[in-house]
Write a structure and sequence with these properties.
51% of the residues lie in helices and 20% in strands. The protein is α/β, with parallel strands linked by helices. The longest helix has 17 residues.
């Protein structure tokens, strides 16, 4: 069975409820692809799934390697624009530029009072790589977009 990672990058505390929703709903994709004979299993990776050194001392090395190996990376911002989440976006975009993967999605929570300096930095990075950021009001919007891209990937 082929295993593919879907990396979800965001501030842990800033988007806790949305992250829980994504973890549950995105997991449903495996029912479609494992059970339908496609023989592909998608692992959903969050930074807190990595080793303790990532959570406690801020080391990004392990996460960056997971991003580089991912089929899909979803980066989400709300009010906080954390330096590690920006780094994860940059790693995903640079890897995509060099190898064609991962598919990268960039979202901002609609109506959030996002740090304007941080948001502008992220938008500049997106423009540099030709990525169109999207806004979302409900995490189901992210799930629908990611499902669609995974279906295309599996064809």
């Amino acid at each position: 069975m082929k295993k593919e990672d879907v990396f979800i990058a965001s501030s842990i505390n800033d988007l806790g409820d949305d992250r829980l929703y994504l973890h549950g709903d995105l997991g449903e994709i495996n029912k479609e692809y494992v059970c339908s004979g496609k023989d592909i299993y998608f692992r959903f990776v969050f930074c807190e799934d990595a080793g303790g050194e990532v959570k406690y001392d801020g080391s990004q090395e392990e996460l960056n390697e997971r991003i580089k190996a991912s089929a899909v990376t979803v980066v989400i911002f709300n009010e906080k624009v954390g330096k590690y989440t920006v780094e994860e976006l940059e790693i995903a975009l640079e890897t995509q530029k060099n190898s064609g993967h991962p598919f990268v999605f960039l979202y901002f929570r609609k109506d959030a009072e996002c740090d304007p300096v941080g948001k502008e930095k992220v938008l500049e990075l997106a423009r540099e790589y030709g990525l169109e950021p999207k806004e979302y009001a409900d995490p189901s919007e992210i799930v629908n977009t990611v499902f669609q891209k995974i279906r295309e990937y599996c064809q």
